[in-house]
Amino acid sequence: MVYWLALLAVAAARPLIEYWRITTSASGHGTIQYSFSGDLLPLALWIAGPPLALFAVWVATRSRAPEPQVDERVR
């Protein structure tokens, strides 16, 4: 959860600061422009990379020994 909140804060900080600067300017008007280069791989790795890495660590470190079978007749 902390990772996602930090990622959201980092991603939203610059646009929010620019929005605040534009809306509170002394002249009362400004412009907003957005451009996108089209390269989604870095964004995908930032969003999906850490959860996938944690899952890989969990799979690599969990016990591989099978669960012991409990004989129902013993009870």
Please give a structural write-up.
By secondary structure, the protein is mostly helical. The protein has helices at 2-23, 41-61. The radius of gyration is 24 Å and the shape is elongated. It starts with a helix and ends in a 14-residue tail after the last helix.
Topology:
Blueprint: H1 2-23, H2 41-61
In DSSP terms (H or I, runs of 4 or more residues), the helix count works out at 2
N- to C-terminal distance: 43 Å
Return residue spans where pLDDT drops below 50 for at least 5 consecutive residues: none
- Coarse morphology: elongated
Question: Main attributes?
Answer:
mainly alpha; elongated; 75 residues; 2 helices; single chain
Sum this structure up briefly.
The chain is mainly alpha-helical. The protein has helices at 2-23, 41-61.
